[in-house]
Amino acid sequence: MKKNVGNLDKTLRIVGGLVIIGFGVLYESWWGAVGIIPLFTATTGWCPMYLPFGISTCKTETAEK
To answer: Which residues contact 24 (CB under 8 A, 6 or more apart)?
Structure first.
């Protein structure tokens, strides 16, 4: 798997995932389990939803001359 999740994207996914899980626990809802998805994509650095659209938030390496 080629990484396609950049640092800012990764940070936002971690915070968002934790917030979703927190609300799930707070409201005693199983919907909090959805927060696992952004946490997983942040820790692996790969998002399957980016593939069909050719999106990558990783910084590209420039070739040195």
So the answer is: 30, 31, 32, 33, 34, 35
